């Protein structure tokens, strides 16, 4: 092999960059976040059910929230009829956060884990935050 | 024909992964085994290829000389296009690797009313550089799924990339650039007859593969939503070498992973090795010192000479006896 020093240095840099995720993680995976559902409001409910079914809310809540935002603010229609035909009053702070009053243990858990920084809080506030 | 074969191959991978990903018993294969195997093939194959290249001797300096060589002090030399120093070579390599300078120099020749004209043609450069940088940023952004805590630069990239906040989840600019540029590079091969004439399955396949990766990624983000927490659990598990396969990740995720794994495994055996090759290219990484320095063949060993003086010493007596003339008595 010619220019062994340079070639090996280059290959070490290459392998180092491409295995970044391995050595940065150092063999321990972060535990899967479990958002808490034990707020007083949820515990009062007879049937613990969000406005749509759980799997849909897990994967698609952001698209639903965006749709509801547009419907409420741009069309002025604050009644959302869900897939079961029930009417829900559209309001992040008064409907969503009434049950999910634990932003830190609910919203932020997964968002921080997945590195998502939603812009909800550019306009809204968390009504339950202590520093208010 | 090459187009059908390549497209068919990519579609076949997608169908297999879609079916395999929807059977929960096969998910560890498509989610863990295939990615690990593909990544190992990539790392080992890449290094072997580079070492193989490094074994080829380059006895002479063969840089492309696209400018005036260093000569008399009053003749201006092209320091980047015909570098004679290490600094010049580093400058040339930097512009090549980061700015794709040789594509930027692309020209097209055409006949206009009987005259041959050469004009600059930057389209290939534009799509190529757009694609490569978009791919780099997309790859770096994906680190948010592999590592935890997420490094600051990944979060910054994420925020800048989605800065227009169009839609929820926000559309990344690099996603649009990636799909747009790959489509343009594919159209170039499909619709420019001169390029199509020299295109092989090995040219189409990576393009279809990359397009498939981009489209499945976008579909996963905007149409067939998957549980991103489960995705991160799997990816983070892979990076920590303690892989777990959570339930209910959609099949589309396994299609995306299968295509990326294919890209990794295919990489060392394909034209994509230009990633390593650009650094190993003797037409780029050598200084043009052909005339100022003596370059010896690396395998040069001096031959054994037998001079006439030695010959005469060997046979002096016999030659004297035979009356042959001698140079030295």
Keywords:
heterodimer, A: 132 residues, mainly alpha, two-stranded antiparallel sheet, 2 strands, 50% helix, elongated, B: 329 residues, Fumarate Reductase Cytochrome B subunit
Structural description of this entry:
The complex is a heterodimer of chains A (132) and B (329). With 132 residues, chain A is mostly helical. Chain A has a domain at 31-120. Chain A is built from seven helices and two strands; from the N terminus they run ααααββααα. Chain A has helices at 4-18, 20-25, 40-44, 54-73, 92-99, 107-114, 120-123; strands spanning 79-81, 87-89. A two-stranded antiparallel ribbon of chain A has the order 1-2. In chain A, β1 (79-81) and β2 (87-89) form a beta hairpin. The longest helix of chain A is centred in the middle third of the chain and has 20 residues, at 54-73. The radius of gyration of chain A is 23 Å and the shape is elongated. Chain B is mainly α and 329 residues long. Chain B has a single domain, classed as Transmembrane di-heme cytochromes, Chain C (Fumarate Reductase Cytochrome B subunit), CATH 1.20.950. In chain B, 61% of the residues lie in helices and 4% in strands. Chain B is built from 15 helices and two strands. In chain B, β1 and β2 form a beta hairpin. Chain B starts with a helix and ends in a 7-residue tail after the last helix. The model of chain B has no long low-confidence stretch (mean pLDDT 91). The A-B interface holds A 1-4, 7, 10-11, 14-15, 18-22, 24-30, 32-33, 55, 58-60, 62-63, 65-66, 110, 113-119 and B 42-43, 46-47, 50-51, 54-58, 143-151, 154-155, 158-159, 165, 167-169, 225-229, 232-233, 236-237, 239-242, 244, 246, 248, 276, 279-280, 298.
């Amino acid at each position: 092999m010619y220019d062994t020093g340079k070639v090996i240095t280059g290959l070490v840099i290459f392998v180092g960059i491409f295995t970044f995720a391995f050595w940065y993680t150092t063999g321990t995976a972060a535990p899967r976040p479990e958002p808490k559902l034990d707020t007083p409001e949820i515990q009062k409910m007879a049937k613990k059910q969000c406005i749509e079914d759980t799997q849909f809310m897990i994967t698609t809540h952001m698209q639903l929230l965006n749709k509801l935002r547009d419907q409420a603010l741009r069309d002025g229609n604050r009644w959302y009829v869900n897939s079961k035909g029930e009417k829900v009053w559209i309001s992040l702070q008064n409907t969503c956060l009434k049950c999910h009053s634990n932003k830190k243990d609910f919203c932020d858990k997964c968002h921080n884990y997945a590195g998502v920084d939603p812009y909800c809080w550019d306009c809204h506030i968390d009504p339950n935050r202590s520093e208010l | 024909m090459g187009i059908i074969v390549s497209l068919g191959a990519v579609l076949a991978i997608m169908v297999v992964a879609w079916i395999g990903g929807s059977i929960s018993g096969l998910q560890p294969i498509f989610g863990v085994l295939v990615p690990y195997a593909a990544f190992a093939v990539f790392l080992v194959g890449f290094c072997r290829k580079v070492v193989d290249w490094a074994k080829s001797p380059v006895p002479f300096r063969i840089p492309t000389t696209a400018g005036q060589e260093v000569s008399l002090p009053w003749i201006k030399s092209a320091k980047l296009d015909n570098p004679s120093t290490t600094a010049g070579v580093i400058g040339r390599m930097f512009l090549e690797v980061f700015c794709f300078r040789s594509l930027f120099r692309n020209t097209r020749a055409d006949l206009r009313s009987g005259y041959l004209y050469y004009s600059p043609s930057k389209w290939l450069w534009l799509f190529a550089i757009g694609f490569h940088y978009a791919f780099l940023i997309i790859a770096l952004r994906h680190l948010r799924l592999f590592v935890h805590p997420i490094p600051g630069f990944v979060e910054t990239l994420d925020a800048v990339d989605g800065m227009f906040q169009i839609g929820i989840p926000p559309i990344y600019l690099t996603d649009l650039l990636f799909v747009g540029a790959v489509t343009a590079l594919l159209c170039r091969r499909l619709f420019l007859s001169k390029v199509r004439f020299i295109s092989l399955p090995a040219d189409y396949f990576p393009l279809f593969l990359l397009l498939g990766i981009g489209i499945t990624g976008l579909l996963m983000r905007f149409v067939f939503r998957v549980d991103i927490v489960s995705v991160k659990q799997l990816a983070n598990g892979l990076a920590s070498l303690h892989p777990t396969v959570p339930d209910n990740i959609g099949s589309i995720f396994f299609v995306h992973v299968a295509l990326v794994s294919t890209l990794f495994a295919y990489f060392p055996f394909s034209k994509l090795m230009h990633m390593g090759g650009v650094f190993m290219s003797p037409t780029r990484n050598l200084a043009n010192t052909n005339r100022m320095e003596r370059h010896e063949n690396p395998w040069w060993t001096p031959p054994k000479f037998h001079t006439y003086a030695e010959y005469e010493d060997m046979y002096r007596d016999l030659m004297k006896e035979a009356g042959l003339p001698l140079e030295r008595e």
